[in-house]
Amino acid sequence: MVQAKKVGLYVAVVFVLYVVITDPAKAADYVQIGFEGISSAAQAVGDFMTWVANGGQ
Protein backbone atom coordinates (compact mmCIF):
# COMPACT_ATOMS: atom_id res chain seq x y z
CA MET A 1 0.00 0.00 0.00
CA VAL A 2 2.84 2.40 0.83
CA GLN A 3 4.43 1.61 -2.52
CA ALA A 4 1.20 2.56 -4.31
CA LYS A 5 1.14 5.91 -2.50
CA LYS A 6 4.72 6.60 -3.55
CA VAL A 7 3.94 5.77 -7.17
CA GLY A 8 0.79 7.93 -7.07
CA LEU A 9 2.70 10.86 -5.61
CA TYR A 10 5.44 10.47 -8.21
CA VAL A 11 2.89 10.43 -11.05
CA ALA A 12 1.15 13.52 -9.64
CA VAL A 13 4.45 15.44 -9.37
CA VAL A 14 5.45 14.50 -12.91
CA PHE A 15 2.02 15.59 -14.20
CA VAL A 16 2.22 18.95 -12.40
CA LEU A 17 5.71 19.59 -13.76
CA TYR A 18 4.56 18.63 -17.26
CA VAL A 19 1.63 21.05 -17.14
CA VAL A 20 3.77 23.88 -15.74
CA ILE A 21 6.47 23.40 -18.37
CA THR A 22 4.20 22.92 -21.38
CA ASP A 23 1.51 25.52 -20.55
CA PRO A 24 2.34 27.91 -17.71
CA ALA A 25 -0.77 30.06 -18.32
CA LYS A 26 -3.07 27.08 -17.89
CA ALA A 27 -1.16 26.01 -14.77
CA ALA A 28 -1.70 29.49 -13.33
CA ASP A 29 -5.42 29.19 -14.08
CA TYR A 30 -5.53 25.87 -12.22
CA VAL A 31 -3.81 27.41 -9.20
CA GLN A 32 -6.22 30.35 -9.23
CA ILE A 33 -9.22 28.01 -9.40
CA GLY A 34 -7.83 26.02 -6.48
CA PHE A 35 -7.28 29.10 -4.32
CA GLU A 36 -10.75 30.44 -5.16
CA GLY A 37 -12.22 27.11 -4.04
CA ILE A 38 -10.27 27.16 -0.80
CA SER A 39 -11.28 30.78 -0.19
CA SER A 40 -14.96 30.01 -0.80
CA ALA A 41 -14.82 27.02 1.54
CA ALA A 42 -13.14 29.05 4.27
CA GLN A 43 -15.73 31.81 3.92
CA ALA A 44 -18.55 29.28 4.13
CA VAL A 45 -17.07 27.81 7.33
CA GLY A 46 -16.72 31.32 8.75
CA ASP A 47 -20.33 32.16 7.88
CA PHE A 48 -21.49 28.93 9.52
CA MET A 49 -19.50 29.60 12.68
CA THR A 50 -20.91 33.14 12.84
CA TRP A 51 -24.41 31.71 12.47
CA VAL A 52 -23.73 29.20 15.27
CA ALA A 53 -22.24 31.90 17.52
CA ASN A 54 -25.37 34.00 17.00
CA GLY A 55 -27.55 31.18 18.26
CA GLY A 56 -28.53 29.77 14.88
CA GLN A 57 -30.73 32.65 13.91
Mean pLDDT: 92
Gross geometry? elongated
Uncertain runs are none
Taking the alpha carbons of the first and last residues, their distance comes to 47 Å
Order of helices and strands: HH
Major pleated sheet: none
Proportion of beta-strand residues: under 5%
Number of helices: 2
Total number of β-strand segments? 0
The radius of gyration is 18 Å
Percent range of helical residues = over 70%
Structure notes:
The chain is mainly α and 57 residues long. The chain has a domain at 23-57. It is built from two helices and no strands. The longest helix is centred in the last third of the chain and has 30 residues, at 24-53. It starts with a helix and ends with a helix. The mean pLDDT is 92.
Question: Can you lay out the helices and strands and say which pair or pack?
Answer:
Blueprint: H1 2-22, H2 24-53
Highlighted features:
57 residues; mainly alpha
Short description:
The chain is built from 2 helices and no strands.
